[in-house]
Design a protein that fits this description.
Elements lengths: L8 E8 L5 H8 L5 E8 L9 H22 L6 E4 L3 H4 L2 H16 L3 E2 L1 H12 L4 E5 L6 H10 L4 E6 L13 H11 L6 E4 L7 H11 L3 E3 H12 L11 H5 L1
Parallel strand pairs: 1-2, 1-3, 3-4, 5-6, 5-7, 7-8
Helix pairs in contact: 5-9
């Protein structure tokens, strides 16, 4: 429902309570007048990610907390829903993403952007096919992410997991560390690089890296905002945040 600030659209954004990057990135990316975002936080009491088992346990916490976070944020009467966490939207490949979308629609009655779908649509818009993927995750997510992209028609030729030890530690990874990873993961068999993991700060670095790599670098938070804008009919171009928001 429109209001004085959100006279074009009001977006509900669901994030884990451990996430400190999504709101900062969205504050940077939501530059279009009349569009606002409002956060529902999923309570994550055990943020450890130092093993595959710990990672799977965290996903269980997300599954339990999702409906409460949605319930709370829906009281602001949003027009659209955004999932501000990557992993649950890739789990199970394209079928898993579709199931997540259906669950969210059933709970809210709203259309939804997920990180997985946003990245696939961004790759299509940019005309990329063979991709490299960078994540902060443990190896347990590799099969799920590769499955999603390859089922979507994007062969994954290179892949790096940073294996961050906790959900909060992801936000501490510096641009200096990530620059080296981007250079290492690039190659002639890569049309675009995709960064997954919404608590990994890559929005500014991805736009910068497109200049010195000469190819698209998709930060997942940029893809999510782009996808949500276009889904709600906002076609404004944003400059300084990479080719996706500038040209598509």
């Amino acid at each position: 429902m429109p209001d004085v600030a959100a006279f074009r659209a009001k977006l509900a954004t669901i994030v884990p309570s451990t996430n400190t990057i999504v709101e900062a990135d969205f504050n940077h990316l939501f530059r279009v007048p009349g569009v606002t975002f409002h956060t529902g936080r999923m309570y994550i009491p055990r943020p450890a990610l130092d093993s595959n088992d710990a990672f799977e346990a965290l996903l269980g916490q997300v599954d339990q907390a999702f409906e409460v976070a949605v319930r709370d944020v829906m009281t602001c009467e949003p027009d659209y829903l955004v999932m501000g966490m990557s992993a649950p939207t890739f789990w199970g490949g394209r079928d898993g993403n579709a199931a997540f979308l259906e669950r969210a629609r059933q709970l809210t009655g709203l259309e939804v952007t997920t990180g997985a779908e946003a990245c696939a649509d961004a790759l299509a818009a940019l005309g990329a096919r063979r991709i490299a993927v960078l994540t902060p995750y443990q190896p347990i997510m590799r099969e799920q992410i590769v499955r999603f992209f390859e089922e979507s028609g994007y062969p994954v030729t290179r892949y790096v997991d940073l294996e961050c030890p906790s959900a909060t530690a992801i936000a501490a990874v510096t641009p200096e560390e990530l620059r080296e990873v981007l250079r290492d993961i690039d190659g002639p068999d890569v049309d675009a690089i995709v960064q997954v993991g919404t608590n990994l700060s890559m929005v500014g670095l991805a736009a910068e890296a497109e200049r010195w790599l000469g190819k698209p670098v998709i930060a997942i938070n940029t893809a999510i905002v782009w996808h949500a804008y276009r889904a709600i009919g906002v076609d404004d171009r944003i400059y300084g945040c990479g080719a996706l928001l500038r040209d598509h």
